[in-house]
């Protein structure tokens, strides 16, 4: 979750708590007008103003982001302790109607059920129990209790309900912990799967011997380039075939042939720019797509490659007269990839027919 999303969530939670305060204040005023709240009108007004003020301060803390500097940015314990203090203040001023208002203690504690640590929750529950018991004892001591047995019953009920809440909070915490662990495990599995998918995609797209893209992946990439082509942009396409490769295999062995293919891949990669697409088209044939290119640049690139391959150094191998032939063409917007490959193949055929070790072009149908 992003930083802003967390802050928005905390503000929403604060709004919920503030709404509960508003409702509670309404009920307190109702208790006051029905004669169950023992305080003067001035005391009521001051108490209400202070309650609203305490919420305004909390709002300012959340709104300014000051809460983010605290170890618990949700300020759950602070808010609960504040709520419990106001509630105890309210209880202390109520007559026998306080029994009905006891439920607010539980409402306040419910806010901490999911967010307070176990120790903090027990601390809050103890505060509730001791403050209510203290109020009851104080009134008992001053003979202000109208019905001491009813008050004793209230203390006992509160004790039992608080005990149950503490146990339930523990259960909730353990369940959340377990769910968090499961989520982490699931995330780890997803990461592993994503990594395996990436490896698999790499394997499916790569030629094992040379490490270049394979034909299928080249066709996919070239089609994508063609679809994304803009008006006036031209791409260069070349089919490259190593000359007399069968002879290399026959004379030096298949492993030597493999080494030559790998050497070509290395030389060609070094000759190309980032963004050029080189792939093994099959056997000893390679294909290269040069995006945003013209006839001159394509020819220069293929010639550079041809000359570099002639000088390639093979470790532990002495092969005389290494050479390649290339068939070149250009691709424009609206051109068909298959047709372009066919044109390049015809040009390659001409290069072979005319004596190999050369680059031939098929610019037909292209305005370049
Ligand atoms: N070592 C090795 N040889 C391969 C591989 N794939 C294809 N070949 C061989 O490449 C040779 C291609 O021979 P040809 O198609 O006759 O072509 P060439 O001998 O290069 O003759 P020209 O293309 O006309 O110059 C065949 O002998 C294939 O067995 C490979 O992965 N490794």
Report on the architecture of this protein.
With 368 residues, the chain is of the alpha+beta class. The protein is built from twelve helices and five strands. It has helices at residues 3-33, 41-64, 76-93, 98-101, 103-112, 118-141, 148-205, 215-227, 245-252, 254-271, 295-310, 337-353, and strands at residues 235-242, 277-282, 285-290, 324-331, 359-361. A five-stranded mixed β-sheet has the order 2-3-1-4-5, sandwiched between helices. The model has no long low-confidence stretch (mean pLDDT 92). Bound molecules: guanosine-5'-triphosphate.
Task: Give a summary of the structure in a few sentences.
With 368 residues, this protein is an alpha+beta fold. The protein contains 12 helices and 5 strands. Helix 1 packs antiparallel against helix 2 (41-64), helix 3 runs antiparallel to helix 5 and helix 9 (245-252) crosses helix 10.
Ligands present: guanosine-5'-triphosphate
Number of helices: 12
Largest sheet: 5 strands, mixed
The geometry reads as rod-shaped
C-alpha Rg (nearest Å): 41 Å
The count of strands amounts to 5
Query: N-to-C SSE series?
Result: HHHHHHHHEHHEEHEHE
Structural class: alpha+beta
Kindly estimate the percentage of residues that lie in beta strands according to DSSP: 5-15%
Outline the low-pLDDT stretches.
none
End-to-end span in angstroms? 53 Å
Q: What portion of residues is helical?
A: 55-70%
**Strand order in space, largest sheet:** 2-3-1-4-5
List the defining traits of the structure above.
single chain; 368 residues; alpha+beta; five-stranded mixed beta sheet; 12 helices; rod-shaped; binds guanosine-5'-triphosphate
């Amino acid at each position: 979750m992003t930083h802003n999303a967390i802050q928005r969530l905390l503000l929403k939670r604060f709004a919920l708590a503030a709404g509960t305060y508003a409702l509670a204040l309404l009920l307190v005023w109702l208790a006051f007008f029905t004669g169950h709240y023992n305080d003067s009108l001035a005391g009521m007004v001051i108490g209400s103003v202070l309650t609203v003020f305490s919420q305004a301060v909390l709002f300012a803390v959340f709104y300014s982001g000051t809460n983010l500097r605290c170890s618990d940015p949700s300020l759950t314990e602070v808010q609960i302790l504040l709520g419990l203090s106001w509630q105890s203040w309210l209880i202390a001023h109520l007559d026998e109607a306080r029994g009905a208002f006891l439920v607010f203690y539980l409402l306040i504690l419910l806010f901490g059920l999911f967010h307070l640590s176990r120790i903090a929750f027990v601390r809050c529950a103890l505060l509730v129990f001791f403050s209510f018991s203290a109020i009851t004892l104080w009134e008992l001591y001053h003979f202000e209790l109208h019905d001491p047995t009813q008050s004793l019953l209230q203390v006992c009920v509160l004790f039992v309900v608080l005990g149950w809440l503490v146990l339930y909070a523990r259960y909730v915490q353990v369940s959340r912990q377990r769910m968090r662990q499961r989520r982490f495990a699931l995330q780890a599995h997803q990461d592993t799967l994503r990594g395996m998918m990436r490896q698999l995609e790499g394997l499916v797209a790569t030629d094992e011997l040379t490490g270049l893209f394979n034909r299928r992946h080249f066709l996919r990439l070239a089609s994508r380039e063609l679809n994304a082509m803009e008006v006036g942009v031209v791409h260069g396409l070349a089919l490259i075939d190593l000359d007399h490769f069968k002879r290399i295999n026959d004379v030096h062995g298949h492993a030597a042939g493999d080494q030559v293919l790998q050497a070509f891949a290395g030389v060609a990669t070094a000759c190309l720019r980032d963004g050029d697409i080189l792939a093994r088209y099959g056997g000893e044939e390679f294909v290269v797509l040069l995006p945003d290119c013209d006839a001159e640049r394509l020819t220069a690139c293929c010639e550079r490659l041809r000359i570099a391959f002639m000088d390639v150094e093979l470790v532990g191998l002495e092969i005389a007269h290494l050479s390649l032939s290339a068939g070149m063409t250009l691709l424009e917007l609206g051109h068909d990839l298959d047709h372009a490959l066919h044109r390049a193949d015809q040009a390659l055929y001409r290069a072979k027919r005319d004596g190999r070790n050369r680059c031939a072009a098929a610019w037909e149908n292209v305005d370049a």
